[in-house]
Design a protein that fits this description.
The chain is of the alpha/beta class. It contains two helices and nine strands, in the order βαββββαββββ. The strands form three sheets. Strands 3-2-5-4 form a four-stranded mixed β-sheet. Strands 1-6-7 form a three-stranded mixed β-sheet. The chain has a two-stranded antiparallel sheet with strand order 8-9.
């Protein structure tokens, strides 16, 4: 079981943490919402929670709460730039379908 970052995503997270001046990594999880049922939540973490599961990619920690892991196990988080848009892209092998707007998914 693992959640990973691409090198580009790890570099982006590391730069953001350095600019903030604090932080230990990012927390990736899911929440119930949207037309397909689940949506990703991503936040920078200053203090890990006791129950967090920790993974590391390119020197950056990814923290996941145990309830979210079954939905995102095997996910690779990338940071992409397409034209004027840039942001994180979730490559989740568990996704069976996504809503039309791309904000939520179903496993």
């Amino acid at each position: 079981m693992a959640v990973t970052l691409t090198q580009k995503a790890a570099e982006h997270v590391a730069q953001f943490i350095a600019k903030r001046g604090k932080g230990v990594g990012v927390r990736l999880g899911v929440k119930t919402t949207g037309c397909s049922g689940l949506a990703y939540k991503l936040e920078f973490v200053d203090q890990p929670a006791d129950e967090d599961l920790a993974f590391e990619s390119f020197g950056v920690r990814v923290l996941v709460d145990p309830k979210s892991l079954p939905y995102i196990d095997g996910t690779e988080l990338d940071y992409t730039r397409e034209g004027l848009n840039e942001g994180f892209k979730f490559n989740n092998p568990n996704v069976k379908s996504e809503c039309g707007c791309g904000e939520s998914f179903k496993v």
